Amino acid sequence: MTEKFHLGWFLNFVADEWNGNWGDGGRDFTGDFYVDVARDFERAKFDYILIEDKLMVSTAFGGTMEHDLKHGINPKHDPVPLAVLIASATNHIGVIPTMSTSFYPPFLLARLCSTIDHIARGRFGWNVVTSGEDRSAQNFGMDKLYEHDERYAMASEYMEVVSRLWESWEPDAIERDYETGTYANFKKVNTIDFEGKYYKSRGPLNTAPCPQYRPTIAQAGASPPGRELAAQHADTIVAPANGVEAMKAYRDDIHDRMTANGRDPSECKVLYLVSPIVADTHEEALAKRDRWFNTPSYIEYMLAEISSITEIDFSQFDLDQPLGELTTNGERGSLESFLSRGKGKTLREIVTGSGLTANIPLVGTPAEVAKEMGDLMEQVGGDGFLITSPVMRLNRRYVTEITDGLVPELQKLGLTRSEYTTTMLRDTLREF
């Protein structure tokens, strides 16, 4: 029998479905739309919402900003204030915004995370990324990013700095002793005096220890350096769903790396990125998939999206010819997942599969897809799924189809939680 697995939602703080019937029409960016859907995710008992981010408008597709702006791919708002807003409007679900080690000073990020974990009452997480776009680097006074593996070497040192800062206050440093008039015991608050190859910080952090003591850490690295960083620090990992064998191999590799780093593999949950498509009948679900993924507008959107992520200009390739070998200094895991849809396939065939998560289709009625997800987890061995809209722009209809259609079927099968039983995000992830 398949064991219970975890659910997360992968969110973009971009214009929602502004050109359809089921968004807010892109009228404003108050965050109200996202608070509404966050409450839906909480009602469906999702573990967390992970909020993606980029720090630029891309020119990767065709050498111009035109397509990035036309399709609303990278115009997006800062995920951190949205995480605070969602945390304040919910009671149980975790919130995990993305922040880049390449551009945040370590002390600033450590302090920010600690503060928000207090506001979120222990439900805050940080999605650790190194960024993969030269256009982002140029917004911060650099000509280009550091080379891929060096970015991860820097991130490893960065994680050491912020971890020491979070631990610079001993858990019981705050005494609130009315008799002595002591708020915090200075003997239990320590400088870190860190000086590494890339970073230097005296410390201590000047915020009280957060409820989780260190925020929940999420990571999405698929390359060997990314996997190693995740194995050392992550509580949850975003992984590509590249088929059963690849998914199992990824999880086994992470577990081996965690063991080598002296960590219990059960302390980190690997969630695979998928975009289920459900409808009242199997035929309707297939029709919906074909209607969504075979239009010229969708193809252009997806090519601009994958160009932005990988910094490879996919406008240079013939849609009706197979792709050759490609390399990038950008997001290597995303490129690998995209190309893994089938050697020998044309670019058009790759793009029109099912968004960026086409390797695991998951198309059918809610009951059919729920069973398929259960079977898949049983074959892989765990730990769950990170669901995202197939076209990245969120709409209420898709959210409702998942939260009120698919999730109840998963719960009927005993595959996902029906209630929250813990108060802090890390504990929620480690419950099973």
TrEMBL record:
Domain Luciferase-like: 8-383
InterPro entries, alphabetized: Diverse_substr_monoxygenases, Luciferase-like_dom, Luciferase-like_sf, NTA_MOA
Keyword Oxidoreductase (UniProt): yes
Record SUPFAM superfamilies: Bacterial luciferase-like (SSF51679)
Record Gene3D superfamilies: Luciferase-like domain
GO molecular function: monooxygenase activity; oxidoreductase activity, acting on paired donors, with incorporation or reduction of molecular oxygen
Pfam family, one: Bac_luciferase
Residues given in the record as FMN binding sites: D53, T98, H148, Y152, S223
Keyword terms: Flavoprotein, FMN, Monooxygenase, Oxidoreductase
Protein family membership: Belongs to the NtaA/SnaA/DszA monooxygenase family.
Protein name: Dibenzothiophene desulfurization enzyme A
Organism: Mycolicibacterium doricum
